Amino acid sequence: MDRNSRIHRWFGTSTRSDPAEGEGTHEVASTPPADLEAIRQAMLAAVAPCSEAHRLRTADLVGHAHTVVELWLIRADIFQYLAQDIGQMRAAQQVSTLLPLFTGMPGVAAVQKNPDNRGHDPRLH
């Protein structure tokens, strides 16, 4: 398997050749179709409280994304814009509302909660 095939397979955009139909014939890999439009709309709604410049940048990024993985990666940009405009706490809350849209999607990391470390005594001894 050449490097490009491995990269495309990792991103979930691979194509595969069907030997029965001859060399060079490709079909899109069978992956469950994601509701990309619903994810796009949710992402655009998430940046509603942002400045017009940030909303336009997000619309451009989201509009050019062709896969769920690309949309997954755009969450970082959305968080950055929200944090600049409304603060980190509210930005984290806003971006966390997007996580259920990506649950079970191929090529997207599993959504996990990190353990809460606040139970430890923060004082130095």
Structure description:
- This protein is mainly alpha-helical and 125 residues long.
- A two-stranded antiparallel sheet has the order 1-2.
- Helix 2 runs parallel beside helix 4 and helix 4 packs antiparallel against helix 5.
Which properties best describe this structure?
two-stranded antiparallel ribbon; 5 helices; 125 residues; mainly alpha
Strand content: under 5%
Instruction: Determine the mean pLDDT.
Output: 76
Straight-line distance between termini? 55 Å
Structural class: mainly alpha
Strands of the biggest beta sheet: in what spatial order?
1-2
Strand/helix succession: HEEHHHH
Short description:
The chain is built from five helices and two strands, in the order H-E-E-H-H-H-H. The chain has helices at about 5-10, 35-45, 50-65, 70-85, 90-95; strands at about 15, 25-30. The longest helix is centred in the middle third of the chain and has 19 residues, at about 70-85.
List the helices and strands and how they pair.
Blueprint: H1 3-11, E1 15-17, E2 26-28, H2 36-46, H3 52-64, H4 68-86, H5 88-96
